[in-house]
Amino acid sequence: MQTLYHSGRILTMVDPDDAPEAVLVEDGLITGVGSSADLRERADEPAEVDLAGRTLMPSFVDSHGHLLGHGRLAALVDLEDARSIDEVVAALRKRLAAREAGDVSPLVGAKYDPTQLAEGRHPTRDDLDRVSTEIPVLALHRSMHVGAANSVLVEAAGITAETPDPEGGRFGRRPDGTPDGFAEEHSALGALLTAIAPEGGKGGIFGGGDAADALRLATEDYLRHGITTAQEGAADPGTVTALADAARAGDLPLDLVVYPVAAWGAPAREQFAEFTGDYAGRLRLGGYKLILDGSPQARSAWMSEPYEPIPGDEHPGCAYPAHSDEQVLAWTRELAADGVQLIAHCNGDAAAQQWIDTVTQVGAENPALLAERPVMIHAQTVRDDQLETMARLGMIASIFSVHTFFWGDAHLRNFGPRRGRRVSPARSALDRGVRVTLHQDSPVTPPDMLLSIWAAVNRISREGTPVGPEERISTWEALRAVTTDAAYQYGEEETKGQIREGMRADLVILSADPLATDPQDLRDIEVLTTIKDGEVVHSA
């Protein structure tokens, strides 16, 4: 079947001045770009879509996120709108009261944010004991890097005053050394999740829920926001199994690139060999993910200089690494030998340095590591000297641009004006020749690509504070970061991210032309239609 799109603005993402009249699509591919008359002459009575002045452009490519985790969180208690610990407790109590009689399963809430709570702190076991003293209760921070448990869960996890902090994490403690219910970073949170579900935490750090329902909810939301290529970053065996089952059943309506956690290692690709080449059922294994530190808004990102003092943390340090240099080097050597892409979560500049040093050393030993385009995920506080080295290595910076909106004010408090204003330094990266992509890290923030574009272009916090205006990028640069350059990150630049002949017909129709829209209004543009391989998969 042929479809001709015409009578609107067409952004090819090849050049900002491109202005073709029409695009012809056939059998999932773009077969013509040019004048309406020429394409009609070439086509055989195509179906016609009158854009009526709206904008057609390549669909969005998600350069980092957790698709299944985004869907799974929909089943948890939503704490995003809580503005006090009392409201956190109330939301959890409300869900508990709505349960059927006899349901004693763990109660999990997600997305609380202490920067939005009146108390300005995390909940403790004493707070969550107000929800229940009979069943386990867990509240997860919006970053998904920290959380708090009630006494039932703390005791079930076997955490006591004598329990040492795990490597790359810590437990909060009362003045007498007994645990206060707080757990920081995945190694510590893992103790709580294992106590909830000994077989592996029902989906790991992002909570439980039925995988099929979670996948449906997540893909609907991604497609609604114009994303047709998504990522499952840091996938555990249960997550990959669920996604592989969905791919085999033909239940993936978008392309999904999966990165198993580095600790799993080579067995991941051996177990799921059918997905190690091109997409199979719209699923492929892209490589491996390393997590090297924590979260800047939670003050657990590993920094080279101490955090600024704040109430409750008057003598801050630099936080800590998730893994030793020796462990990171060993994993990188082992996994690079497979000839696959490695991506690493680095929020703090000390973590960024650990990754840069590792890639420099292993890349010299095995150039295949560099050829596969290593990625620094988040790159929140990366310095200019580090960006210069990244450019030489060909390392991509996948930047969490919407952080400046959600947590810009927190970063200014946590880091002070000098460091806080340059969080998510996309301008500095581009100016030094680093290829930049943008992401939302869903479920940490919604998979709203137009909000990320708006954030990168404007850099204004949700409290209205300018956050390093000198790090703003242009609308064109932001659009490239979520289309052309994101496709490049995946090694798919010859099939996605632009409108030209031979490319896959992954497209969106927008309510307005982003290049002709006032930067302040970019987040108000609507995704009207999402097209995957020539088929409409979402229509507003």
From TrEMBL:
The lineage of its organism: Bacteria, Bacillati, Actinomycetota, Actinomycetes, Micrococcales. This is Amidohydrolase. It comes from the Bacteria. It comes from Brachybacterium halotolerans. Residues 48-538 form the Amidohydrolase domain. Pfam families: Amidohydro_3.
